[in-house]
Amino acid sequence: MPQLNPSPWFFIMLTTWFTFTFIIQPKLLSFTNTNPPSNKPLTTTLKTTPWAWPWT
C-alpha cells in the first residue's frame, strides 16, 4: 500500500510548510493596509424609506 509509505510525502509536506512559513508568510505580512480602519464615530444617521413593492 503506497499511501502508507511516508518517505516522499513527508518531505513534500515539510518543504511546503517551510516555504510558506519562512518565505511566503513574511512577504504577505509586510504589506501595509491601504485603507486602515478609523475610530471615528458615525455622526450621520441614514434615513431609510420603505420600498414600495409593485405587486402589493
TrEMBL record:
Entries under Pfam families matching the protein: ATP-synt_8
UniProt GO molecular function: proton transmembrane transporter activity
Question: Carries keyword Ligase?
Answer: no
Compartment annotation: Mitochondrion membrane
Q: Which residues form a coiled coil?
A: none
- Say if the entry is tagged with keyword Metal-binding: no
Highest taxon of the lineage: Eukaryota
Q: What's one GO BP annotation on this UniProt entry? A: proton motive force-driven ATP synthesis
Which keywords label this protein? ATP synthesis, CF(0), Hydrogen ion transport, Ion transport, Membrane, Mitochondrion, Transmembrane, Transmembrane helix, Transport
- Residue ranges spanning the membrane: these are 6-24
Report the principal subcellular site: mitochondrion
Q: How does it sit in the membrane?
A: Single-pass membrane protein
Gene Ontology cellular-component annotations: mitochondrial membrane; proton-transporting ATP synthase complex
Family, per the entry?
Belongs to the ATPase protein 8 family.
Q: What is this protein called?
A: ATP synthase complex subunit 8
Task: State the organism named in the record.
Answer: Urocolius indicus
* Protein encoded by which gene: ATP8
